[in-house]
Specification:
seven-stranded parallel β-sheet, alpha/beta, single chain, eight-stranded mixed β-sheet
Length: 1942
């Protein structure tokens, strides 16, 4: 029977395994290899001896090939059998398979049965050793009790409280107490059997040990572990080769696994300061050892240093958790189990263990505080294994010291101690090395005590012998000193502690990385003492390269070390090590080695890293660096003036130095650079970036600025350097790109500067600057006047253009000046909209002038309006018919003709009828009167008189009888007067009598007092007077009125009304007849009809009158209502024949009611137009002067013409414009611009040369000039470049104000404390990481970041790019350019593209990546394309070579053809591939062709621009005439296209594509096996792939694909150009408007009929394209010049000429076209104009730094401060001293004093007196003479300075601003004024640079021709130096005096 049976069993079994359920059989597999199915199988398992019960399993079926598996076999192992085994025996396990009592298979396996107390060793479940730890053994209880007593003795508490106090010290004391209790048992030690750990051994259990007092190391370890576990402490068992010991956790923790074989897990936790685990050498408890607990712990730790002897350790608690339980205690005595009480052991002296060192509590260990500085430093680190900061080995750069106490060593060094390094001890062999590092010494090594002793003596030992040690120290000494001098960075450190780490878990070779780096220096004391080391005055630092490697590669963040923990002296070394240990606890095989190594620790970018690390505080002073660190701008930059800033006016020609022409975008950047602003300069490909940088540098130098130009690539730096050299600035620029620059080359550059010859400024520079400014203003004024937008929103050119576009020849309307002046864009928009709708309404209703509804202003319409109006109109028509009849009857009564009455007559007729109808009374007599007004007035007066008479009469009759009227009132009055003059009694009697007479007429008994009498008299008199007047009126009126006059009872109101009625009737009749004779006849007819009286007249005619008036009223109301409803005045507007006209009007409206709706619509639009003030237009339309369909045209043409004329009247300059004269100005401007560039270069050179010190003169050795001269002479012997720069900082900036460097050379050569540059310029900033740029940025005040964010990002070769997600907010972006963009640093953009000589070469990039913002120049063959697609039927070898052979062959063939053809060989060639493999293939194929045709190689490589073959990654910065693309990718041999295009698929791949497709100047050819439609963008989201698809499509189909859907035109069509184009087309020419595909266009291109793909002539107008030019130079020089260089023939058409004389202007255009056509036919190509300089790649002839053509030679080099000293010649006049002081000669003395002062001032008092006295032959001055001179000097009136040593000055001299010195004179030193010495001090410092004070005084003494420094000389010069310091002319630091920067 063919059965395959497999089973797996344990090799041995014992009681402990049975108790812990270890399966005897782990697995059984049975497989049927028969072809038949097996059924009814029985599997039986038995043992021999029978230590488990037999077991059987049944298997019903087992199919052919089927396999059955059992992993859990429930065997019942015999407990009693195994527990009674006292020796190991050999047994067997048998498996038998049978079927129906037939045995099919049988086998047996041997198994060892171990004794009850036997452990199987580490090869059989080593964790089972934990079962022999028996904490519950009764034998342990006495030990625990004794331990508690010891613990109480030590601590005062006997509590075995394990971890409850959370104090590791408490746990340690418990462990120590148990240790002492066991030691008291005096257990003897016996050795373990050989290789016990492999085969196992018998274990003495606790009771057996304590009973027999005998134990092996393993027994002791298990006993100690059992005691620890009994009190709750977690024990550990450690096994090493041939030995075992124990330990315990000091904290309540366990390991993840029961068994661990990584010794580092113990050593890290047992390290001092970690305090997590404590190990104990348990054999130290055996009898006779007498070793303390602390010593036993030290021995245990020491045993772990031999890592090769370590086997494993067991965590007992973790084993318990895995259900490995302790063995039960069974002691057999006399055949019975008994518990044996141990005998009391003798007590021994115990000492409490030393307390643990303070446990290092590290907060937030995994949390690392990361700042921007840290991230920058990380970026600069080298994380490769060649960096000795990660992989330290013993080389010539490192020296390992014999291990010492590192903490003590660091403390001593931090305290300033020096240590001597000695060779290794004699007769001592080195320990073995591991991975290049000597391993730590074992504690038993005899040299350990020596090393410790030597440490106290400040001596250290190395592992080298004396000779080797000296060589090593000498090398370290020299190399570290060289690094410090060359790089300014210390690289010599003492590495304290090494991290032992593994690259992968499976690595076997460990690496060692320093942890702490303590900066040291090696000092050579003497040959005898040798070298010593001491710490530098720098901070100890952590190896951040290590930290970064741990973070990036292993995800380990180590916190708590920033800043480093410190102790009393320096840093806390143990705490730092423990922090590292905690962080790597989980890393297998990793540990901290306490080693010390002296070495040079550096890496490739160490200089940059060190610059940031050590100068961070200095770098942060720079506001831009501070902003980069904080992530936001730390200052508020002034925004640039955007928009229409007049650059020419703001920056006059003499203010900005442009040695090379610049377009406006470049010009803006150049100007902004010197305005103390930092900004980003965007430089897309071909925009003249390097040229702009050159101009920026030149202009900054012109302004006296210091410039640092930084470029990482040498090629970029050389481009700018060559341009600076070409304009003559090479002597003032110092190139130091490499940090390994040759000293000789640097000195040669400086020597060249010392040889510069100074030159005078050319006066032509100022003259031509003024002329250029004048011409700029004139040219710009014209363009501004033409395009200035006025309040109406229109410029003059807008008016011209729009006027030309309008096809209208009808009548125009006029506009008032006020309307034109007040017009606004909003107003125009409203007018335009309203007129469009108004015109549509006009067309809708026909024509408003002829519409029947004309005059109707109805603006509302409802569906019921028509029916309602029809009813009203019909009713009105009926009323009109009725009134016609009534008017006929009235014509009979009033003999007048009523049919032709005017409106006023009509109204008069109604008035006549109304008067006749309403008059109460009419007088025929009155009608006969000629003056009705006078009569009316007379009647009114009579009526008023009658009314007054009646009032007085009624008042009298109310009190008296009528008889009183006949009384003599006059007599009564006389009596009253007479009585009044009498005495009172007669007066009384007389008055009483009179009262009685009057009372006789009174009614009733009225009493009359005197006053009442007088009132009665007055009334009576008034009555009589009024009656008399009334009688007079009656005489006149009675004949006229007849019966109507009644004097006594007349109705006075009626009389007055009669007069008014008569007057009104007279006026109405006169108005009706409008003729006096006719009015008389009418009145006569009325008089005749009134003869019968008024009543009779009204009876006859009253009804007629009332009916007429009623109809008129009704008609008036109806018409008014209708007028109001229709908003018309049609009825009231009728002037004659009212009724007939109204009838006609009503009939017309009724007839055209159906047209009312359209009219209402017209009225609505009409109201809008009228509201906009266009009455004249509406009037002209409604008068029929304007056609309905041309309303808008009429208005627009009228307005544009009127507005243009209005604007011209405001611009007198335009009125005198003439194109020919203007073109002459353009010619002059071009010529001046070209000449001015040359003059600018000369002026710039003269300025820079003039600022140089006197470099040819011999200077003081200590001066900066002297130092430089000495180094030039001796080749810089003994002086590094950095040291030289540090010695001449001021001189260097004056000689070379521009430095061209790389970031690393900046960090190496430019000290961070140096005076900052005014401007730092970064080129190719998109490829420069921020971490590399910040150092250079910090060395300047302002920054210009030049680059293109749409081109290549930085390339990382040796650094990693692991992203720190936890600090994502602080991570840098790709480059310094991106970071500055993120800061929102202001930006400037270069917009004009010059590289591509055909727009098609840049159009793709421009549209795809630059939003078509680049301004490119179209070429004459713009109708064709220069980007060609050539399909190649090739295959991409995917997965193998990754090449496309067919494409490569096609490219090589193209190169060969081009090089072979003389016409194409002149064009340089570049090849761009999409991967390196295709690049290599093309290179190989081309090399093969070159071997066959060597002449082709010569043509390809030995030329100005050799053929290059590059890929996407490295082509940036290169350009060629012709670029050949090899895509490479395409279908593979299966036809499948994988959308993996290498770098294009990566993030930013589109930027690589953008770089590649913008390299060509003249032509681009794309070789591809892949077509655009084969790229499926649904399969990829990579932007680069999408870009490739678009590019291939563009190459195949041309520019139309770029503008599909959006058009190639981005601006509004210029109507004037369109008009001109139509005129030219009408003359038979083919023209194109807006030629070009970018923002810049040629206005009109005339197509060559012979060559339809080319243009014959370009026409430029001063229209919109010209107006966007920011400067006159753009319009006049740059743009036309570029076009002419591309081959264009140009003609200017001026808008003013066209407006003035359209036909003449067009004639000139036609003449230019014909001239160009004839020229083309004759084959005479127009040469580019010499005046059309283009600011693109134009090289200028280098100017010699020793002499320049046309330069003005300088005069002999005499300092401006220096003047000759003139002595006064005084007439000799001998005078005796006595006579001198008598005053006889005072006048002459004063005269001589004044003469001396005028000539020699400033002059000291002593010298002045000496001069005057000598002229009087007086040899010496005594007291009397002195006093006399003092008095006379006071009278002289000259200014005096100087105090005790006075100096006299001329009145026109200002001592505070005096800057002159006079070197040649016979004066004593004390006679030289301090101000004069101060000027000399400045001169010396200017010529020689900074000087030490004493050397400066010596040089000044030499100027004044003093050969030595005596006391007087020193005193005088010192006063002058103090004066210079006081004035702020110079400044003094610790050791030198230097000129103070202005």
């Amino acid at each position: 029977m063919n059965l395959q049976v497999q089973f797996e069993s344990v090799p041995a079994v014992n009681f402990s395994m049975q108790q812990n359920h270890v399966p005897v059989i782990r697995e059984i597999r049975i497989k049927n290899e028969e072809e038949l199915e097996l059924t009814g199988l029985c599997v039986r398992i038995t043992s021999d001896p029978e230590f488990f019960e037999p077991f059987q399993m049944h298997l019903d079926t087992l199919s052919p090939g089927e396999e059955k598996q059992w992993t859990v076999i429930p065997l019942r192992v015999s407990t009693s059998y195994l527990s009674n085994l006292t020796e190991q025996i050999l047994g067997a396990v048998r498996i038998e398979i049978s079927k129906e009592d037939q045995v099919l298979f049988s086998t047996s396996h041997e198994i060892s049965l171990l004794a009850f107390d036997q452990w199987g060793g580490i090869s059989i479940l080593p964790e089972m050793l934990a079962a022999f730890v028996t904490p519950n053994s009764p034998a342990i209880a006495p030990i625990i009790k004794r331990a508690s007593e010891i613990l109480e003795n030590w601590t005062g508490s006997s509590a075995m409280d394990e971890y409850q106090t959370r104090d590791p010290n408490r746990v340690k004391k418990q462990m120590a107490a148990i240790y002492e209790a066991i030691a008291e048992q005096q257990i003897a030690y016996c050795t373990v059997p050989a290789s016990y750990q492999e085969s196992g051994q018998r274990i003495r259990l606790c009771d057996d040990i304590l009973q027999h007092k005998l134990a092996t190391c393993l027994d002791m370890a298990l006993l100690y572990a059992g005691c620890l576990e009994a009190v709750g402490i977690h024990p550990l068992i450690v096994l090493i080769k041939g030995h075992a010991f124990a330990g315990g956790w000091l904290i309540p923790d366990t390991f993840p696994d029961s068994v661990n074989d990584d010794v580092a897990l113990l050593t890290k936790r047992a390290a001092e300061g970690i305090n997590e685990i404590l190990l104990v050498e348990t054999t130290c408890m055996n009898a006779g050892a007498n070793i303390s607990f602390d010593a036993a712990s030290g021995v245990a730790n020491d045993k772990l240093k031999d890592t090769d002897s370590f086997l494993l350790f067991i965590d007992v608690l973790r084993a318990r958790n895995a259900r490995i339980l302790p063995l039960p205690l069974r002691i057999v005595r006399d055949g019975k189990f008994e518990i044996c009480e141990p005998q009391d052991a003798p007590r021994r002296q115990t000492e409490a263990p030393v307390s643990l060192s303070a446990t290092d509590i590290i907060l937030d260990q995994g949390k690392v505080s990361v700042g921007k500085q840290t991230i920058w430093e990380r970026k600069l680190l080298d994380l490769s294994l060649r960096n000795n900061l990660l992989n330290t080995r013993i080389t010539k750069n490192t020296l390992q010291l014999i291990s010492v106490k590192l903490a003590e060593l660091e403390d001593a060094l931090a305290d300033g101690e020096e240590f001597q390094i000695l060779e290794k001890p004699q007769d001592w062999d080195n320990p073995w090395m591991s991975a290049g590092i000597y391993q730590a010494l074992h504690a038993s090594d005899p040299v350990v005590d020596l090393v410790k002793s030597e440490l106290k003596q400040r001596r250290l030992h190395a592992y080298l012998n004396q000779e080797t040690l000296q060589r090593s120290l000498t090398y370290l000494y020299r190399s570290s000193r060289l690094s410090l001098e060359e790089n300014g960075a210390n690289t010599l450190y003492l590495a304290l502690g090494l991290l032992k780490w593994l690259e992968t878990p499976s690595s076997t070779r460990p690496r060692f990385a320093p942890i702490l780096l303590l900066p040291i220096e090696i000092i050579r004391k003497s040959a005898a003492k040798g070298y010593v080391i001491r710490s530098r005055d720098e901070e100890t630092m952590l190896n951040i390269t290590l930290l970064e490697m741990l973070r990036q590669y292993f995800g380990i963040q180590i916190g708590g070390l920033d800043p480093l923990p410190r102790d009393e002296s320096g840093v806390d070394v143990p705490k730092i090590f423990n922090t590292i240990r905690r962080a790597i606890m989980s890393q297998k095989g990793w540990d901290v080695e306490e080693q010390a190594i002296v070495g040079n620790f550096s890496f490739s970018k160490f200089i940059l890293w060190n610059d940031i690390h050590n100068n961070a505080d200095k770098l942060c002073r720079n506001k831009i660096v501070a902003s980069l660190m904080s992530g936001r701008l730390e200052w508020t930059p002034e925004p640039f003036e955007e928009g229409n800033v007049d650059l020419d006016r703001k920056y006059p020609a003499e203010e900005i130095a442009l040695p090379i022409g610049a377009d406006s975008s470049q010009f803006e950047a150049i100007c902004a650079a010197v305005e103390q602003k930092s900004f980003i300069l965007h430089g897309p490909p071909g925009t003249g970036k390097s040229q702009t940088i050159t101009n920026i540098i030149a202009n900054a130098l012109y302004k006296g600025k210091k410039v640092l130009f930084v470029a990482e690539k040498m090629a970029a730096l050389q481009v700018v350097q060559r341009r600076l050299e070409s304009i003559g600035l090479a002597p003032f620029c110092l190139e130091l790109h490499s940090n390994k620059a040759k000293k000789s080359a640097v000195l040669q550059q400086l020597k060249r500067t010392t040889e510069v010859v100074k030159q005078k400024s050319n006066q032509e520079f100022r003259i031509e600057a003024e002329q250029i400014n004048l011409l700029r203003g004139q040219l710009n004024d014209y363009m501004q006047a033409l395009h200035r937008v006025h309040p109406a929103g229109l410029s003059l050119y807008d008016c011209f253009a729009r006027y030309a576009s309008l096809d209208y020849s009808g009548e125009t309307i006029a506009f008032s000046p006020g309307t034109l002046q007040e017009m606004t864009p909003e107003g125009r928009a409203r007018v335009d909209a309203a007129l469009e709708e108004y015109q549509a309404a006009c067309i809708l209703c026909g024509h408003p002038a002829t519409d029947p509804w004309k005059g109707v202003g109805l603006t509302e319409y409802t569906p019921s309006l028509k029916s309602e109006l029809r009813d009203e109109l019909e009713t009105l028509s009926n009323h009109l018919e009725q009134i016609k009849g009534l008017r006929g009857r009235l014509a009979e009564i009033l003999p007048i003709e009523v049919s032709g009455l005017s409106a006023s007559q009509d109204q008069a007729l109604r008035e006549v009828v109304r008067i006749l109808s309403s008059a109460q009374v009419l007088s025929a007599g009155l009608l006969a009167e000629n003056d009705p007004a006078e009569m009316s007035l007379l009647l009114d007066r009579a009526a008023r008189c009658g009314e007054e008479r009646d009032r007085v009469r009624d008042a009298i009759l109310s009190r008296f009888d009528p008889g009183i009227f006949s009384a003599d009132v006059s007599a009564w009055e006389r009596q009253w007067r007479q009585s009044s003059s009498k005495w009172w009694l007669p007066r009384l009697l007389g008055r009483n009598k009179l009262r009685g007479e009057v009372r006789a007429y009174a009614k009733g008994s009225e009493k009359l007092d005197p006053e009442q009498l007088l009132e009665v008299f007055s009334l009576l008199k008034s009555y009589r007077t009024l009656q008399e007047q009334l009688n007079e009126y009656g005489k006149t009126l009675s004949p006229i009125l007849g019966r109507l006059w009644d004097e006594q009872t007349g109705s006075w109101d009626r009389l007055s009304l009669l007069g008014q009625t008569n007057e009104s009737l007279h006026r109405a009749i006169l108005a009706l007849t409008e003729d006096i004779p006719r009015s008389l006849s009418v009145k006569q007819a009325l008089r005749n009809r009134l003869n019968g009286g008024t009543e009779a007249f009204k009876t006859l005619y009253g009804a007629l009158f009332e009916q007429y008036l009623s109809l008129e009223t009704d008609l008036s109301e109806r018409t008014m209502r209708l007028q109001q409803r229709l908003h018309t005045s049609a009825f009231t507007a009728v002037s004659t024949c009212r009724i007939q006209a109204w009838s006609s009007l009503v009939e017309g409206w009724v007839e055209h009611l159906g047209h009312l709706h359209e009219w209402v619509m017209y009225n609505l639009q009409r109201e809008k137009v009228l509201s906009l003030g266009l009455e004249t237009l509406v009037q002209a339309l409604e008068n029929g002067n304007v056609d309905s369909s041309q309303v808008v045209l009429c208005y627009e043409k009228s307005f544009l013409k009127a507005y243009a004329e209005y604007l011209l009247s405001q611009e007198p300059r335009l009125m005198t414009f003439h194109g020919k004269l203007f073109e002459e100005k353009l010619r002059r401007f071009r010529t001046l611009s070209r000449d001015f560039e040359r003059l600018t270069r000369q002026e710039l050179f003269a300025r820079l040369a003039g600022s140089l010190p006197a470099l040819q003169k011999e200077a003081a050795q200590s001066s900066e000039v002297g130092i430089l001269q000495r180094n030039i002479r001796n080749g810089g012997r003994g002086t590094s470049i950095r040291r030289l720069f540090d010695q001449i900082p001021d001189l260097l900036s004056r000689m070379c104000p521009c430095m061209l460097m790389s970031p690393i050379s900046v960090a190496q050569y430019i000290d961070a404390d140096r005076s900052p540059f005014d401007l730092v310029i970064f080129d190719e900033a998109s490829q420069m990481p921020t971490s590399e740029a910040v150092g250079a940025i910090a060395r300047g005040r302002h920054l210009i970041v030049v680059g293109d964010p749409k081109q290549m990002p930085p390339t990382h070769f040796f650094s990693t790019d692991t992203y720190d997600e936890e600090n994502a907010d602080k991570e840098d972006l790709e480059s310094i350019l991106d970071d500055c963009l993120a800061l929102s640093l202001p930006s400037k953009h270069l917009l004009w593209h010059y590289r591509s000589k055909h727009e098609s070469l840049i159009a793709f990039s421009n549209v795809k990546y630059y939003e078509n913002r680049l301004l490119t120049f179209p070429s004459p063959d713009d109708l064709a394309t220069k980007v060609h697609f050539q399909y190649v039927d090739g295959l991409y070898d995917r997965g193998a070579t990754r090449q496309n052979l067919a494409e490569a062959q096609a490219v090589v063939k193209e190169i060969e053809q081009r090089l072979s053809d003389p016409l194409t060989a002149r064009r340089s060639i570049g090849v761009v591939t999409f991967n390196t493999h295709q690049q290599s293939l093309i290179e190989d194929l081309l090399t093969d062709r070159f071997r066959i045709h060597p002449e082709l190689e010569t043509a390809a490589l030995e030329c100005e621009e050799p053929v290059f073959i590059k890929n996407l990654e490295n082509v940036q910065g290169d350009e060629r005439d012709v670029i050949l693309f090899s895509v490479g990718y395409g279908p593979d041999k299966t036809g499948r296209i994988a959308l993996n295009f290498g770098p294009l698929n990566r993030e930013g791949g589109w930027r690589r594509l953008n770089v590649a497709v913008s390299r060509a100047r003249y032509q681009m050819k794309v070789f591809s096996s892949l077509r655009a439609d084969q790229i499926d963008l649904n399969r990829t989201s990579a932007e680069g792939v999408a870009g490739l698809k678009a590019f291939l499509e563009y190459a195949e189909k041309g520019r139309k694909v770029l503008f599909s859907g959006q058009g190639s035109e981005n601006r509004t069509q210029d109507a004037l150009l369109a008009s001109i184009a139509r005129e030219l087309e009408a003359r038979g020419y083919i023209v194109r408007l807006d030629v070009g595909c970018s923002g810049y266009r040629i206005d009109i291109g005339v197509v060559d009929p012979q060559h339809p793909d080319k243009y014959l002539l370009g026409i430029l107008c001063d229209g919109y394209h010209a107006s966007v030019a920011r400067t006159a130079h753009d319009r006049v020089v740059t743009q036309p010049g570029a076009l002419r260089m591309l081959g264009w023939k140009l003609h200017h058409l001026w808008a003013m000429d066209w407006w003035e004389d359209r036909e003449r202007a067009l004639g000139e255009v036609v003449a230019a076209i014909e001239s160009a056509r004839h020229s083309a036919e004759d084959g005479q190509a127009e040469q580019p104009s010499s005046s059309a300089a283009v600011p693109a790649p134009v090289e200028h002839t280098a100017l010699s730094f020793s002499a320049q053509e046309d330069a003005v030679p300088s005069e002999p080099d005499v300092p401006a401060r220096q003047q000759p000293y003139q002595e006064t010649l005084l007439e000799k006049t001998p005078v005796a001293s006595n006579d001198f002081v008598q005053g006889l000669y005072d006048a002459r003395i004063l005269e001589k004093i004044r003469a001396v002062v005028r000539t020699e001032a400033p002059i000291s008092r002593a010298l002045l007196c000496k001069r005057v006295l000598n002229s009087f032959s007086i040899a010496r001055m005594g007291l009397r003479l002195s006093a006399h001179m003092e008095r006379l000097l006071a009278q002289s009136g000259f200014p005096v300075t100087g105090g005790e040593n006075p100096f006299y000055w001329n009145t026109d001299q200002d001592p505070e601003h005096y800057q002159v010195y006079r070197p040649v004179s016979s004066r004593e030193a004390l006679d030289i004024a301090p101000q004069e010495v101060a000027a000399a001090v400045c001169q010396v410092l200017e010529e020689q640079g900074a000087l030490p004070r004493q050397d400066l005084l010596r040089e000044v003494a030499h100027i004044f021709h003093y050969t030595r420094l005596g006391d007087n000389v020193t005193a005088s010069l010192s006063r002058g130096l103090e004066e210079a310091l006081r004035r702020g002319w110079v400044e003094q630091d610790e050791d030198k005096v230097r000129l103070k920067p202005v």
